[in-house]
């Protein structure tokens, strides 16, 4: 299993240090930094377009499917991979190809995969919720937002908003540009297929980000050869990435499979570094730790009595669904008078 870890905790604090108690010391410094950063945001700045789709526990999956995941020599996949309810043997990827975790429902998956049927069931449930959310957004698009350019948005420059296609949506003949700010959102409701032509690029301009682009596809999506795609695909059936195509986003296919022959792919955004907001002794051998983290990513908490690298040991491992995350450590210490903590995310 391959994992990538973000920067491991910059502020190791120990629970018995007077500086970590009450409202004194590092807690005030961290809060001050947060408040100062918030004050720099211009008053009245609002995101354009609809609210983003909440992906829940699917957020850390680059590929999630209901059937086989196949590849005939595709490039690196930067993100987790999973399939359910199909057996793990239907995931035909090499471990070296996945820069993340391969989750399976049984022990027949690729070497190093993690058996996690409950996690996959929850992710497929969140995929259903996200798909239905995107498909049900209102008000129903009209005018330029309904079947733009007859269903082929190649050559168009689209601002943020909710767009609807009654049948197949095409991006062919020329690139499409999505222009907007860093917090602006695009949702594309597609009644049938999504077809992206060979060599076509989805271009982001003005600070637009792939994490805020959602393609709800009523049947299947096909990204043709050498195409450059941006955004999360929520497909009722299958997703196909052909030779030398790339994706910054997610290929989430509910009932059918994912064919991955792309040159490379990555999640549209990586989780932020976990940040401690408080560490306090709440009783004999009881320390309560509060961490601001990215929801739906695996968080590991470790402790150490002396900051010696070899003495760090795991305390807890969890996948919080909300932030901040709070944990009470009741580990008995016999000789140490202090305890340091650090946390990191695995993705």
How would you portray this structure in words?
The protein has two helices and 27 strands. The protein is mostly beta strands. The chain folds into two domains: 18-35 and 271-346, Immunoglobulin-like (Sandwich), CATH 2.60.40; 61-266, no CATH class. Strands 1, 3, 4, 5, 6, 7, 9, 12, 15, 17, 19 and 21 form a twelve-stranded parallel beta sheet that branches. A six-stranded parallel beta sheet has the order 2-20-18-16-13-10, with no helix packed on it. A three-stranded parallel beta sheet has the order 8-11-14, with no helix packed on it. The termini are close together.
Comma- or semicolon-separated keywords:
mainly beta, 12-stranded parallel beta sheet, 6-stranded parallel beta sheet, 27 strands, disordered N terminus
> How many discrete structural domains?
2
The coarse silhouette is globular
Uncertain ranges? 1-45
**Total count of strands:** 27
Based on CA atoms alone, the radius of gyration comes out at 22 Å
Overall structural class, as computed from helix and strand content, comes to: mainly beta
Reported for the largest beta sheet, the result is:
12 strands, parallel
Residue-averaged pLDDT, rounded?
85
> In angstroms, what separates the terminal alpha carbons?
11 Å
Q: Helix and strand succession?
A: HEEEEEEEHEEEEEEEEEEEEEEEEEEEE
Helix tally equals 2
Share of helix, binned = under 10%
Strand content: 25-35%
């Amino acid at each position: 299993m391959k994992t990538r870890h973000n920067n491991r905790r910059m502020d190791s604090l120990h629970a018995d240090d007077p500086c970590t108690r009450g409202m004194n010391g590092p807690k005030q410094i961290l809060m001050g930094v947060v408040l100062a950063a918030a004050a720099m945001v211009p008053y009245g700045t609002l995101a354009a377009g609809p609210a983003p789709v909440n992906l829940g526990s699917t957020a850390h999956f680059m590929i999630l499917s209901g059937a086989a995941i196949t590849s005939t020599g595709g490039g690196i996949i930067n993100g987790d991979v999973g399939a359910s309810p199909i057996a793990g043997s239907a995931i035909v990827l090499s471990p070296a190809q996945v820069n993340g975790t391969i989750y399976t429902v049984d022990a027949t998956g690729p070497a190093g995969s993690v058996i996690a049927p409950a996690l996959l069931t929850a992710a497929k449930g969140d995929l259903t919720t996200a798909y239905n959310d995107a498909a049900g957004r209102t008000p129903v698009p009209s005018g330029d937002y309904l079947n733009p350019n007859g269903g082929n948005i190649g050559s168009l420059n689209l601002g943020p908003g909710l767009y609807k296609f009654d049948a197949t949506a095409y991006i062919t003949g020329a690139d499409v540009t999505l222009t907007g700010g860093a917090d602006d959102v695009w949702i594309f409701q597609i009644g049938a297929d999504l077809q992206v032509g060979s060599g076509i690029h989805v271009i982001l301009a003005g600070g637009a980000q792939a994490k805020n682009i959602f393609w709800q596809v009523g049947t299947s999506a096909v990204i043709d050869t050498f195409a450059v795609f941006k955004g999360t695909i929520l497909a009722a059936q299958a997703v196909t990435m052909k030779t030398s195509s790339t994706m910054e986003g997610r290929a989430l296919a509910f009932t059918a499979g994912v064919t991955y022959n792309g040159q490379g792919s990555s999640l549209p955004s990586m989780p932020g570094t976990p940040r401690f907001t408080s560490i306090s002794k709440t009783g004999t051998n009881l320390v309560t730790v509060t961490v601001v983290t990215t929801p739906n990513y695996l968080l590991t908490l470790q402790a150490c009595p002396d900051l010696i690298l070899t003495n760090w040991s795991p305390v807890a491992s969890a996948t919080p669904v909300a932030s901040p995350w709070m944990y009470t450590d009741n580990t008995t210490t016999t000789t140490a008078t202090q305890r340091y903590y650090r946390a990191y995310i695995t993705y």
